[in-house]
Automatic annotation (TrEMBL):
UniProt-recorded name of the protein: Helix-turn-helix protein
Lineage of producing organism: Bacteria, Pseudomonadati, Bacteroidota, Sphingobacteriia, Sphingobacteriales
UniProt keyword Transcription present: yes
Pfam families recorded: HTH_18
Domain HTH araC/xylS-type as annotated: residue spans: 191-296
InterPro entries: Homeodomain-like_sf (IPR009057), HTH_AraC (IPR018060), HTH_AraC-typ_CS (IPR018062), Tscrpt_reg_AraC-type_HTH (IPR020449)
Superkingdom of this protein's organism: Bacteria
């Protein structure tokens, strides 16, 4: 496999794209200034946000084409890799906002950057912008770019970081909108999640794998764990973990009525390593132990 090109510094990425470095820790990169190049795997050691000026119908989301055509935002956290090697040239397009973790250390954004879970979404879970949303994003980028072109003074860092935070807050709002407007797609995922759990507990997987994890379910549904978790939370009001635990309790309630099985046997059949963990979860959710529930019904 072709080795990925790695960018540790903002200046390295700027040079790669024929872009002047105005600040060592942050840049707004106009990708159309880069020379045509072959497709390569690229690794970024800083936060990277791409605004792709393409028709989203040319890309695919699972088995469905994107339904927004005005632009797409893709988010990468430090250490992520994007792309694949192809022996064909292409002209990069769009804009990239890149900023190093050192830029936000000690700031309010630095303390809450982990809350922006979309930095761990897969590329296929991109944010599709409406025309009005794209204008807001472009306005944020323009303000950041203005500060980069302005002579550095005591206000520069605060204003740059504040505008990045504003940018990310808008993205959070737009993702909330996307979860709502893509309700049909999301409902389909929720139904598949339910079917996945049903088939899981009807199979031998609890014996061989154990309890189903959020990461396992997300992988089976071809979603990143963070996107999957956020989607389930928006759709049901519960975390994916809570949803799984509710399913475990539903299955357990039926199994408890089989008086030929001990509580320990039921726990192992469900995928618990230790029966006491099953009993504790059952009591927390139902208000009584499995044996008490069995006796009361």
């Amino acid at each position: 496999m072709e080795e990925a090109i790695s960018f540790a510094k903002i200046s390295e990425y700027n040079t790669f794209n024929n872009q002047e470095t105005l600040h060592p820790l942050v840049s707004v990169v106009h990708l159309d200034r880069a020379e045509p190049r072959v497709h390569r795997r690229l690794r970024y050691e800083f936060y990277t946000i791409f605004l792709k000026q393409i028709k989203c119908g040319d890309l695919r989301y699972g088995l469905n084409n994107y339904d927004y055509e005005e632009g797409t935002l893709i988010f990468l956290g430090p250490g992520q890799v994007i792309g694949e090697y192809k022996e064909e040239y292409y002209q990069p397009q769009g804009i990239a906002l890149v900023f190093h973790p050192d830029l936000i250390h000690g700031t309010t954004l630095g303390k809450k950057i982990h809350e922006y879970s979309f930095f761990s979404y897969a590329v296929s879970e991109a944010l599709h912008l409406s025309e009005q949303e794209r204008k807001i994003i472009m306005d944020c980028l323009s303000k950041i770019e203005y500060e980069l072109q302005h002579a550095i003074d005591k206000h520069s860092k605060q204003l740059i970081v504040s505008n990045i935070e504003l940018f990310l807050n808008y993205c959070e709002r737009f993702y909330d909108r996307q979860f709502i407007t893509r309700d049909t797609v999301n409902k389909g995922i929720l139904e598949r999640f339910e079917e996945l759990l049903n088939s899981y507990f009807e199979s031998e997987k609890p014996y061989s794998i154990g309890l189903p994890s959020v990461a396992y379910c997300a992988g089976e549904l071809h979603l990143s764990a963070n996107y999957f978790g956020d989607l389930i939370k928006k759709e049901t009001g519960k975390s994916a973990q809570e949803y799984i635990q509710n399913k475990i309790i539903d299955v357990a309630k039926n199994m408890v009525f089989d008086r030929n099985k001990s509580v320990s046997e039921i726990a192992y059949e469900l995928g618990f390593k230790y029966p006491q963990h099953f009993s504790r979860l059952f009591k927390n959710r139902v208000g009584m132990t499995p044996n008490e529930y069995r006796s009361a019904n």
